[in-house]
Amino acid sequence: GTLMSLTWQLLDDPYKNRLIWQTLNYHHEKPQVQSIARSQLTEVAKAVGLDQLTAPEQLYHRPATVLLEIETYNGTDRSRIKKVTPASGVASSNPVATEPAAIPQDETPW
Q: pLDDT-based confidence at 109, cuts 50/70/90?
């Protein structure tokens, strides 16, 4: 498969500046895995105001609100991004898309 790894930096207290990672397996031999990753990537693009993602650099330094949940994996707690939505109270030069971002169905989403 082919992965895209996103790093989110939390901006609000009490966890300000903490980093959270999200890995999206957008090209995978199992269609369900690929579909989930592409759906998550569409959610991220929409949350940061993009109606079409053509390069990963378009996601850099764009605020969004992430909903985290704690899950236990092999006896260890870890954070998992459950949902990504537009940042509240942040002015953006790009309006939030009303439709999901278009992601090409080839090898890469850009």
A: low
